[in-house]
Design goal:
The complex is a heterodimer of chains A (about 625) and B (about 250).
Chain A: H1 6-32, H2 40-68, H3 91-119, H4 130-164, H5 173-181, H6 183-192, H7 209-212, H8 216-244, H9 257-288, H10 302-336, H11 343-357, H12 375-384, H13 386-400, H14 409-432, H15 434-440, H16 444-474, H17 480-506, H18 521-551, E1 582-584, E2 599-601
Antiparallel strand pairs in A: 1-2
Helix pairs in contact in A: 1-2, 3-4, 3-5, 3-18, 4-8, 4-9, 4-10, 4-16, 5-8, 6-8, 8-9, 9-10, 9-11, 10-11, 10-13, 10-14, 10-16, 11-13, 13-14, 14-16, 14-17, 16-17, 17-18
Chain B: H1 3-27, H2 37-70, H3 88-122, E1 127-134, E2 137-142, E3 147-150, E4 152-156, E5 161-167, E6 172-176, E7 181-185, E8 191-195, E9 201-202, E10 210-213, E11 225-231, H4 233-242
Parallel strand pairs in B: 1-5, 4-11
Antiparallel strand pairs in B: 1-2, 2-3, 5-8, 6-7, 6-10, 9-11, 10-11
Chain lengths: ~625, ~250
């Protein structure tokens, strides 16, 4: 038993040593520079050293860094559930580590949202004061952003993408393990920051507020930067994997659409994340070193942060949304039993979104006081994004047209995605338009809008992915009845919650407030009640997943009779993914064409024809 | 059923639901009642966008629902659908229509925005109010009248008010819901906006006559508001005369 958690224990002990060393060093430096009593240098260095200690302990030293010093690396042979608690380099293990970690965080962030809705049930103080409210709201925000960024890109992309392209693993398996193992300290730090006064400036952390508030904010900033590192490494890995590790015959035109969507999102992860790291780092420097990037009295400019922040954070919305499009279209094609409609247009659309996503950031700043002449150009670029996004809807509707729709749980979630994302997209137009945005900016209309794109859109796609790939990941089948109950309950309660939220936003309820004028009371009460019903839907999900994973019936290799490669191997797949490596001979969506094949599998070197489909 | 039959059913459903949807969206008042020239412009833009959004929404939802119900397969043996991978005419039409809609919306938005600015610029007798946000108080200074008030904004009916906004500490945002205007208060920067009140009223009768901080600013963010009063010009002058001059 102890052996199973050995690397974890070692990681925690070394992290503790790192924290003590770093903090002492920080205190020393603070004292030498005449700032004794300022604890933030100690916190910052303690964090950095602690993070390094943790990573070395968890396995970077044993299975990687020793090599740099000419030592022999150890490869511990472990199997079963123990694999998940150590520095494992199998992309399938890492995918499951990511999914389980982030679904847990999703439930934790959801719990925070329940506290928010209890507080907002009625005007005045309900269960917490304004400071606690701001902290809970900020915690909900940053946790859910992390969930939205990493569940698909870390979870499904890891588990499924190498299978979909017929590869044995990702291009850099050790970098992959590293990108997962920096996540636990990030999650821990976001919680531990509560001991240092928490952080009350939302997930956006605008200075000067984020320079002057409690020290918990510093830990928030450091954790956010660390998370960005994980995202950059992931993006690098997936781009390289898709470019270099496609199976013979897997041309760019034959890539499943989910692979394209991850490829597009990975471009953004790799190239945009540095900007937010820079924005956050300058705030860290203002706090810890005493620079004045954002202190206007000393020549700084608070508006600069907002530009840098959104230069990443708007493209980041597409790190969340694009792979969601990919899962939804993938599922819709397989359960419509038809080729994906307008495949090339969708690929073009995904890449066009990547390009456009970099030139729309200032639509977050219409009311920020930036120069007036920037309004019109950013309004135009923002509205242009609806053209490539519209292609996703064209593809979904065209694929469903005259189809043979098999309404399974994953298919329901994919269709729910289309419905919700439609509302998210249409309401986005009201926020892209400058005159209407001037009223709606910073109201609950914005809150409802981005929940429609991220929760109604991406999170529904995540659930489509969970149910779709559950048999492949676990080798077991879930209960369809409970899955459908989960879908309908969640779908109806979700829409009741967030449609009402548009209404209170129109009415003048602004974001991030612990209290509001009495005339908004009834609208908020409806939102809160619907939100509680929505939360209840996740009990069915958790119950279904946990019990099916432990006791569910054994899943067939290809329960959905889908044509893509991940279904042509065993459930779960062997370590090397395919018994015989695939040779791709056709497109993955050739439903309705008798005898068409996506790939053939033949033993290496025999040159035998035929084989399994 | 033939393809033409499917298309005609969907067309009828689309038409009916769009008409009903537009009628419904026009009949319910979603926004607080407007109290400035700019608020009317914003509200009419909101209405136009809603009217355009309804047919887009109904088209997608009806096709989605129709496919789910009519093209559903329930048999024991899994069947494949027809092998249709695309249709160039529909693809081009779709891109063309979405592009045209986008260009129209961008053009319309630009026209409205420039119209708002021109209206404010042409107003001759505007009133200047300097607004300063600080944790957690709004301060209003009327330079011409040399009056300073706290958490109370009083403005005359029918005159464009030019607001020069700044902050003493961190970023706040100056928002009056009934006027549909909003601008951030940024330390070290003076931001500008304007509003032309066209309805007499006060916070007592309408909670949307309030200055609300719209940018998260720490502990008492939700309590950082002020009351707005719009008066007849004569009453405003009397009010201004009755105020002590600022030091």
């Amino acid at each position: 038993m102890w052996m199973a958690f050995g690397p974890l224990v070692k990681g925690i002990l070394q992290a503790a040593v790192g924290v003590v060393l770093g903090a002492s060093f920080g205190d020393l430096l603070a004292g030498l520079t005449g700032r004794s009593g300022d604890r933030e240098p100690a916190m910052a260095l303690g964090y950095v050293f602690g993070l390094i200690g943790w990573l070395l302990g968890i396995g970077v030293w044993d299975s990687w860094a020793k090599e740099w010093f000419g030592l022999q690396v150890k490869h511990a042979e472990v199997s079963g559930w123990r694999r998940y608690f150590r520095f494992n380099m199998d992309h399938k293990v890492i995918g499951i580590q990511y999914v389980v970690t982030f679904i847990t965080l999703f439930l934790l962030g959801g719990l925070a949202s329940m506290l928010i809705r209890v507080e907002l049930m009625s005007p005045g103080r309900t269960i917490m004061g304004p400071n606690e409210f701001n902290i809970v709201m900020s915690f909900h925000g940053i946790v859910m952003i992390a969930v939205a960024v990493a569940t698909i890109m870390g979870g499904f992309a890891n588990f499924v993408l190498p299978l979909l392209i017929g590869a044995e693993d990702v291009a850099f398996p050790r970098v992959n393990a590293l990108s997962y193992w920096v996540v636990p300290p990030v999650a821990f730090t976001l919680v531990a920051a509560m001991l240092f006064g928490g952080y009350d400036s939302g997930w956006t952390a605008y200075p000067p507020l984020s320079v002057h508030n409690a020290s918990g904010q510093l830990l928030f900033l450091l954790a956010f930067i660390t998370f960005g590192l994980s995202s950059i490494l992931g993006g690098l890995n997936f781009l390289t994997t898709v470019i270099t590790l496609r199976a013979p015959g897997m041309t760019w035109g034959r890539l499943p659409i989910f692979v394209w969507s991850v490829f597009a999102a990975a471009i953004i992860s790799l190239t945009a994340t540095q900007f937010v790291a820079m924005a956050l780092l300058t705030v860290v420097l203002d706090r810890v070193v005493g620079t004045a990037f954002y202190d206007s009295a000393r020549g700084g400019n608070p508006l600069l942060y907002q530009h840098l922040f959104w230069f990443y954070s708007h493209p980041a919305v597409y790190i969340m949304a694009l792979p969601g499009f990919g899962i939804a279209l993938e599922v819709i094609a397989h359960f419509s039993r038809k080729p994906l409609f307008a495949y090339k247009w969708v690929v073009g659309g995904l890449l066009a979104i990547v390009g456009l996503s970099f030139i729309v950031w200032a639509h977050h700043l219409y009311t920020s006081g930036m120069s007036d002449q920037l309004h019109v150009p950013f309004m135009i670029t923002t509205e242009l994004i609806s053209v490539p996004t519209g292609l996703i809807f064209l593809s979904a509707l065209g694929t469903l047209w005259l189809a043979k729709v098999w309404l399974t749980t994953p298919m329901l979630f994919a269709l729910g995605f289309v419905f919700n994302f439609l509302i998210g997209g249409i309401t986005g137009i009201f926020l892209a338009d400058v005159p209407t945005d001037i009223h709606l900016q910073d109201t609950y209309y914005v809150v409802a809008h981005f929940h429609y794109t991220i929760m109604g859109g991406e999170v529904f796609a995540i659930f489509a992915g969970i149910y779709y790939w559950f048999p492949k990941m676990t080798g077991r089948m879930f209960s369809e009845g409970l899955g459908k109950l989960h879908f309908w309950w969640m779908f109806l309660a979700y829409n009741a919650t967030f449609l009402s939220m548009f209404y209170v936003g129109y009415q003048g309820m602004n974001r991030r407030v612990a209290d509001y004028p009495a005339n908004l009371g009834s609208g908020n009460l409806i939102v809160s009640i619907a939100a509680f019903v929505l939360a209840a839907s996740f009990f069915f999900f958790v119950y279904n997943m946990v019990f099916s994973w432990i006791k569910g019936p054994k899943a067939a290799d290809n329960p959905w009779q889908a044509h893509t490669l991940e279904w042509q191997t065993s459930s779960p797949p062997p370590l090397e993914n395919f018994k015989h490596p695939p040779r791709v001979v056709g497109v993955p969506y050739n439903y309705g064409t008798p005898g068409a094949q996506h790939a053939i599998f033949e033993p290496m070197g025999t040159g035998a024809t035929g084989g399994e489909d | 059923m033939s393809v033409t039959r499917h298309v005609s059913i969907i067309a009828v459903l689309w038409l009916v639901s769009s008409v009903l949807g537009i009628a419904f969206s026009l009949s319910i008042g979603m926004l607080p009642s407007p109290a400035s020239h700019e608020a009317h412009v914003v509200d009419s833009a909101m209405t136009l966008l809603t009217v355009l959004a309804v047919p887009v929404f109904t088209l997608v939802v009806i096709m989605l629902g129709y496919s789910m119900l009519v093209f559903r397969q329930r048999g024991d043996v899994l069947e494949d659908g027809p092998s249709i991978a695309g249709n160039q005419r529909i693809e081009l039409l779709w891109v063309g229509v979405t592009l045209a809609l986008t260009i129209f919306l961008a053009g319309y938005g630009t026209y409205e925005l420039l119209g708002l600015r021109t209206h404010a610029a042409q107003s001759e007798e505007s009133l200047l109010v300097k607004v300063t946000g600080s944790q957690w108080l709004w301060e209003f200074y009327y330079p011409k009248q040399n009056i300073r008030t706290f958490a109370q904004l009083t403005v005359p009916l029918g005159r464009t008010v030019q607001f020069e906004v700044t902050s003493k500490d961190i970023v706040h945002s100056f928002w009056i819901p009934a006027f549909r205007m909003k601008i951030d208060a940024v330390p070290g920067l003076t931001t500008r906006t304007f509003s032309t009140p066209d309805r007499v009223g006060s916070f007592i009768d309408d909670p949307n006559f309030r200055v609300q901080c719209a940018e998260l600013c720490g502990l008492a963010h939700s309590a950082m508001f002020g009351m707005v009063t719009v008066m007849d010009p004569k009453d405003f002058d009397a009010w201004a005369a009755s105020q002590p001059t600022a030091q």
